[in-house]
Every structure is written in structure tokens, then in C-alpha cells.
Amino acid sequence: MNLPFARPLKGIIVPVVTPLLESGDLDVEGFERVMARLLEGGVHGLFLLGSTGEGPSLPPAMREQVIRIGCAQAAGRVPVLVGISDTCLAESLRLARLAGERGASGVVLAPPYYFAASQAELYHYARRVASEVPLPVFLYNAPSFTKVWFEPETVRCLAEEPNIAGLKDSGGDRIYLHQVRFLLGDRKDFSLLVGPEELLADLLLWGGHGGVSGGAHLWPQLYTGLYQAAVEKDMERVKHLHSLLMYVNTQIYRISPTPCSVFKAIKCGLSLIGVCGDAMAPPLEPFTPEERAVLKERMQEMDRRLMEEAAWLAAAPAGSPS
After folding, report:
1. CB under 8 Å to 51, separation ≥6 — which residues?
2. Domains in the chain: how many in total?
3. Does the model's pTM come out above 0.90?
4. Mean pLDDT throughout 274-299?
5. Domain range holding 104?
6. Where are the alpha helices (DSSP H) in 5-109?
7. Could you list the active site residues?
8. How far apart are CA 53 and CA 61, in angstroms?
9. Hey, which residues does 137 pair with through a beta bridge?
10. 4 assigned to some structural domain
11. Apex CA 288: angle with CA 284 and CA 291, to 5°?
């Protein structure tokens, strides 16, 4: 069933990995374990077929499989967003309709990645998609992958469309985020979500709504805890949790020098804890044995730091100033 969500959509939305077998087929059991882990971890939403899910590299039949299984397992417990970004408008519309039929709550649209469209072209493209799909549409900026992005004024204009519900920005530009937030100051129902996890606390504290955070696969309570601390303006806890999140960003995600190290690290981390394998969709390749060994050590260190954080929280006096 479709789970309507209160606008703006808020919280930690996880861009779900797509576990693969060595044959290249979907690892259905691994995918189900990933979904179960996230749902049990208390995240606020799921995002299928995003960058972390290697959506652009998956064949059409597997995308359909991911939508069908993912929506069925979520079973209306949290909103499910589905990535429909493609170089072909007809394929994006097909995926959106399928997502609606299978019970998704919304779809996510990045600019088509090959021809560099103008802002006017992107505006007309997104308006057309929003007018033809059965679900709310979230705009998605991923400039490192698509070359172009929805500029602030374009976002403002598109936000006037009733079926466009928010923006997920992965550009990592604070100035851009401030511009969008300013231009949409009177739109309390338009969701502003951030991809780069090091900006999550900043965005939440000055009025954003949440993050699309892949690291929540490994430590879901870290991300939901940071979200809750920011909402409650518990600044001492925000500082502690943000520091832990920065360890993830600098020590977990950057083990490999390759541009997609973050996606490899998340999948490899899941394999180290027995959730799914680390096979990647071509042309990407998993971590080398040496990189895997480094990740194992750093995950153990992260677990140690989380235990220290839990002890600090338990010892903190109730009602202490924050």
C-alpha cells in the first residue's frame, strides 16, 4: 500500500544498497536482510534505486524486482521513495508508475545524465514528470554524476508545482543550501534533505528537514540519534554525535581513492557484519582484500567510540543544560 507522508518529509531516509550475487543477479535474501535491519533500526524512510543502491547500473528487470520486494517488505511502516532518474523520459515515467502500483510513497528525480540540459529545459522536464506520475516527486541534485543540477531559482519555481514535494541535495555546497532555504522560506511543506552526512547537523539546526544517509546501514542509531538531538536542540549531544559521524566520513568512506569509495565502504561494511555480500554492479569493483582489512579495523574502532558515547550519555545528568 502507498503510505502517505506528512509534508514536509522529515528524518533519516536511507538510500538502500542493492545486494548482488557474484553472478550479477539480485541477492534477494541479502536484500531482505538489509531492509529488515533498517526497519528495525528505526530509520524514518527508505530510498530505493539511488546512487548508493547503484540504480543507474542495474538492468530494468532488476530495478522492477527491487521496487517490488522493497515496497512489499516495508509494508507501509515507513515511506518508501524510488529513484526514477534515467536518460530516457519514458523509462523514468515507467518506473514511477510501477512504484505507484507497488505501494511506494514518492519518487526521486535527478537531471538526466548525459546531455547537459539548460535550467529552462530542466524546469520543463521536471514539471512534465510531476504532472504525469502518480506520486509526489523529490528533486535530486547529484552534480558529480549528472554535470547539471536544479539551481536555486529553478527549485523555487518547481516548488510551486503541487506534486513536487522536496529536494535532496548532494552537491555539498552550504551556500547553495542557504539560498534554497531562503527562497523557500514561506514553503513550510517543502522538504529539504541533504546527502553529504557531514552537513546533516548544520542543515537540521538551521531549519532543514533531514538527511539521505547511507551510513545508517551500519549504525542506524547514530543517525537517528543525531536527528533527534538536533530537533530537540540538545547541542552537547549534537556535538558528540556529529564528531562520530565525521569519523565515518573521514575514516570509513575514504579508504579507497576511487570516486565511489563511499558506496563500496557501505557494502563492504555490511558484508563484514554478515548482512549481505560486497559485489558491485559493473563497472564498479568491491574493496581489495587490503582495503577490506582496513575497513574492519576502523569499524571496530567506530564501535568502540559508540560504546564510549553510550556511556557518556548514561552518565549525563538528567535535564543538564545543552
Report:
1. 15, 142, 145, 170, 263
2. 1
3. yes
4. 98
5. 11-233
6. 28-40, 60-74, 89-102
7. 140, 168
8. 15
9. 107, 164
10. no
11. 115
